[in-house]
Task: structure prediction
Amino acid sequence: MSKIETSKQSRRAFLSGAAAVGAGAMASGEALAQTADPLITQPQEWAQGFGDGVDATSYGLPSQYEGDIIRRNVEWLTADQISSINFTPIHALDGTITPQGCAFERHHSGAIDLSKSDYRLMINGLVDTPLVFTYEDLERFPRENHVYFCECAANTGMEWAGAQLNGAQFTHGMIHNMEYTGVPLRLLLEEAGYDTAGKWVFVEGADASSNGRSIPMDKALDDVLVAFKANGEALRKEHGYPVRLVVPGWEGNMWIKWIRRIEVTNFPVESREETSKYTDTLENGVSRKWTWAMDAKSVVTSPSPQAPVKHGKGPLVITGLAWSGNGAIKRVDVSKDGGKTWETARLAKPGEKMALTRFYLDIDWDGSEMLLQSRAIDETGYVQPTKTQLRDLRGLNSIYHNNCIQTWWVRESGEAENVEVS
Amino acid sequence: MSKYLKSITLAFAVFAITGPAFAEKFGLGRPALLAEVAAWDWDINALGEGLPSGSGDALVGEEIFAEKCAACHGDFAEGIDNWPKLAGGADTLDHEDPLKTVGSYWPHLTTAYDYIKRSMPYGNAGSLTDDEVYAIVAYILYSNNLIDDDFLLSDDNFMEFEMPNKAGFVVDDRAEAEYVIWSGAPCMEYCKDSVEITMRALVLDVTPDLDVAPEAVTPVSVVAEVPEPEAAAIDLELAAAGEKVFKKCKSCHQVGERAKNKSGPILNGVVHHAAGSVDGFKYSKAMKAVAEGGLIWTEYELAAFLTKPKAYLKGTKMSFTGLRNEADQLAVIEYLKTFAN
Result:
């Protein structure tokens, strides 16, 4: 057997090493140190000299050792990289808040540069007085803070017909979860004196795609935010700087970025993004429209294909994320045998409405292969369905709203693969 | 009228069945001018509210489509590569892999007008006249065999047109159709007799190779590094300006290490290189002809081509209307010089 390479960081090298460990030679915890560890016994550079001064980095980036924890795209998905999407590296994150720098992006005409001073927001249509707000105006309204997930309706969409992409980042990474600061849309509508006969608002972005969606007035008045901060700092350009719409629990396409106009209307516009796209075609050819809410869903983020088990048998943390657009997550169950038996996972903290919930299952792994699944249950009592259940009711052509239970096949080597099971 | 008086008026209005909502106001923002609302409020709803007056037929539409749309959507609206297919797919919605086009899927024709008017052409959104949009919509209908080529589509008859899949949509019924089934205490033990793996992602093998690090993989210092001057003495400031201009080209052309041919060829090393010579790209007959004639993309020739591509080379596939500004031409050429072949 070749020597275990410990110095290389590449996934393949590590996996070949992990395979040897998995064979039982020195599973973690059992290993006895044969020779003294030079990292301990020998003086190290970092323990003698200086590190960086405070003027080295005016705005910090992740450690150089985390360079592969990045957004990635799947080139064949779209015709170009401007009207396209990339994926959050959820396999490598923990907790629930997504750092802005690696939170997925979806653009229809590219991420535009729009300064605060050039920013204008118009409210028109069925209002007493059509108004124009500057960025500074928005900052003078009373603000709220809320943590919400934003999930693209197409998340997991590539998996309808079968197990396709090998990694949680790619199967479930069209999601992020941030703490937003913003003004309730209700306050802006009231400021313009909206007509209570208006049953809809049409919201539109400032980019060239002028992505526009119709939102029912009840939702607009309930919890929609006109947000300008995320995770404490300004929105990133790719997420709609300086101002975006936050539509809690509803599909990401409605979270208009660079929002420039809100029109109170009697009827939905039935724009491209709410007719030809973001509608769900069923097996009989009829399509559902206005499928706004993202149903309860979960995924094991580690172990997973991009996050294999490298330490062999013994203590293993199984972890993942759960969320629901219809309320708070109440419970998450995990199966290690492809759904024959389930055990209830530990929630890092009680689920919050329309926000990611982190779950853990701490096990003593015996080193045998597992078919790992997770199953979310939200406060309405809805239980995340299996792929078979979804396909039985919808067929294979829906594209959007695939919230199926995901299976990872964790091998004895610790490697994991996206699979489907009977 | 003062804010105070306005509030009084509003207070009475709440007693009406409908009317402006009354709430405490902050006095923020300013009234939008009519001209401002007109400049942004273009949307057209499914009832046809917002449709401008105008007209066009498929014969006119075909010419506009060939110039401004066909580079992505194909001459016959059939779609090139992954770009949206606008025609075909009739009666496929209940098949495996249905072909969802304007003709086969879209429930409202207004959506086509609204979208094309506001968001197309890709890379030059909002530049079409109202008549041009009518003509393009007519051409798309014609491509779907839904009208004759001389049918004059206008605001007068637009709403009479009924889309084939108009009745093909139902409002979200998940609550009744699914939630009731997928609720209640789930199975915890003995849920299945056996579990077999029925499909594996690695067999399909379409996942991006994670061992190939994307260009941006290593976090870079915020302090910009000053690049070494290139041997060819590239004007870096001008090239930087050119990078911005290149945004107009990006939807069809790629540059850099991982560039691929898209609807336009890779542009690495294009400056001072033979025309029509990128491997694997299907050039127009016109481009092949000048390439055989020995055309070299000198800066002068490139600038001439970029000024008005279709005038420079009749029959070129490049649907871009042109870079009229000479400074933009020079900048984008300088930018292209930074990419070696």
About this structure: Chain B touches chain A through 101 residues (CB under 8 Å).
